[in-house]
């Protein structure tokens, strides 16, 4: 819970964590010391910070669920029956998959949670991309995944992100996933970024693409967000939910 709080909200003081988690400051300090010894965070004066890096699927699945569901509903409304849909890794794509039950669609994904969600839905033609299994992140990656994508075409790609820079650059913390994301973009007619307000600026050390590679951004970021203005100036449609 401490790691999730730090990853979703950034650096935090001991007192803030104590109030947020409903435990004593002494308990928080002891846990921070243990987590630092395990290399999972860095203690700073009065609190702690989590260094940028991969987040296992299970750690983020329960973060900002209502916001992700709102994005998912808006995204599902864009899709017409009979179309092909490419779903990226991550929890927001999973929330979108939950909105696609019973739809006459082709869904292509390297996201194992999406696959599991739709596997028993006979209305959906489901295509699982091959690749190397990343167990904790519930995804398939590598040259096999990229090669599969070069042989496919999708009407829509719904892309996730770790963070969106003020310049409109789309970032990811997971270097090994970036080539797959780029291959997904190349395989799709319409590229839609799903990014809740927590992704502005979010995290990420590796560039996936720029605003010129996007067609639409679905977000609940404030309407006066400077980054959203950058998207609009680049000709990207911004759908606010």
Automatic annotation (TrEMBL):
PROSITE patterns: HTH_DEOR_2
InterPro entries in alphabetical order: Carb_Metab_HTH_regulators (IPR050313), DeoR-like_C (IPR014036), DeoR_HTH (IPR001034), NagB/RpiA_transferase-like (IPR037171), WH-like_DNA-bd_sf (IPR036388), WH_DNA-bd_sf (IPR036390)
GO MF assignments: DNA binding
Pfam family, one: HTH_DeoR
SUPFAM superfamilies referenced in this protein's UniProt entry, alphabetically: NagB/RpiA/CoA transferase-like, Winged helix' DNA-binding domain
Gene3D superfamilies, per database record: 3.40.50.1360, Winged helix-like DNA-binding domain superfamily/Winged helix DNA-binding domain
Keyword DNA-binding: yes
Record domain HTH deoR-type: where: 1-50
UniProt keywords, alphabetically: DNA-binding, Transcription, Transcription regulation
Top-rank taxon, per record: Bacteria
PANTHER family hit by this protein: AGA OPERON TRANSCRIPTIONAL REPRESSOR-RELATED, HTH-TYPE TRANSCRIPTIONAL REGULATOR SRLR-RELATED
Name this protein carries in UniProt: DeoR/GlpR family DNA-binding transcription regulator
Species in which this protein is naturally found: Streptomyces yatensis
């Amino acid at each position: 819970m401490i790691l999730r709080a730090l990853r979703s909200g950034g650096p935090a003081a001991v007192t803030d964590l104590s109030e947020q988690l409903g435990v004593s400051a002494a308990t928080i300090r002891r846990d921070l010391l243990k987590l630092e010894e395990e290399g999972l965070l860095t203690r700073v004066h009065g609190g702690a910070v989590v260094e940028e890096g991969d987040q296992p699927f299970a750690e983020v699945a329960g973060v900002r669920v209502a916001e992700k569901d709102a994005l998912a509903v808006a995204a599902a409304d864009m899709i017409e029956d009979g179309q092909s849909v490419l779903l990226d890794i991550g929890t927001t794509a999973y929330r979108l998959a939950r909105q696609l039950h019973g739809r006459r669609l082709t869904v292509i994904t390297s996201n194992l949670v999406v696959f599991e969600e739709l596997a028993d839905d006979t209305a959906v033609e489901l295509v699982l991309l091959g690749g190397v299994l990343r167990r904790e992140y519930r995804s398939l990656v590598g040259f096999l995944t990229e090669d599969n994508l070069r042989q496919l075409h999708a009407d829509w790609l719904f892309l996730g992100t770790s963070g969106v820079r003020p310049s409109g650059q789309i970032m990811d913390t997971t270097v090994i996933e970036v080539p797959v994301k780029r291959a997904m973009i190349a395989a799709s007619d319409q590229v839609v970024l799903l990014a809740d307000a927590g992704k502005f600026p979010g995290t990420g050390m590796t560039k996936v693409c720029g605003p010129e590679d996007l067609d639409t951004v679905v977000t609940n970021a404030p309407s006066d967000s400077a980054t959203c203005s950058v998207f609009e100036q680049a000709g990207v449609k911004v759908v606010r939910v």
